[in-house]
Amino acid sequence: MRLAVGDVVVHHRDAALGTVAGVAAAPAGSLVVVRLSGGALRLYEPDALSLVARGVPPMSRRRAAVRATGFVGALAAACFGVRVAYELGDRGLLVLLSGLGGYAAVRSACHALVRLIGPRRFRV
Asked: What is the Cα–Cα distance from 58 to 42, expressed in whole angstroms?
């Protein structure tokens, strides 16, 4: 199971609902630290928990800047691809596909970068 800090989980046996606060090391394996209502912390085995909802933090300024820059760069790559294909004498579908290819290449690279700087999930 992959969890991130802020995910909402429920314990099977005592139906305790809380948010993941971290992971604690134990001799028998890792335990998940769950913050219950009222601020109490409990340690549970990962197999005894079920994921209820993913905690989604608001987008950071860095991620927003990368997404905006990626979109502008993808539009520029599409325009450049269309312009080059048109100047080489191609018409119609090939011009459209060259623009689409330039857009897709830059967007996929920026998408990978956004995922790289995004929030982390850890396996327990």
From this structure: 26
Give the domain extent around 119.
Answer: 61-123
Specify whether 91 is located in the same domain as 112. yes
Whether residue 118 is predicted with pLDDT greater than 80 in this model: the reply is: no
**Alpha carbon distance, N-terminus to C-terminus of the chain:** 6
Q: What is the pTM of this model?
A: 0.58
Predicted local confidence at residue 107, as pLDDT: 94
The pLDDT assigned to 81 comes to 93
The pLDDT score that the predictor gives to residue 28 is 82
Q: Is 44 in the same domain as 67?
A: no
Tokens of 46: 């990962």
Residue 29 CA: distances (Å) to CA of 1, 12, 93, 107? 14, 19, 58, 40
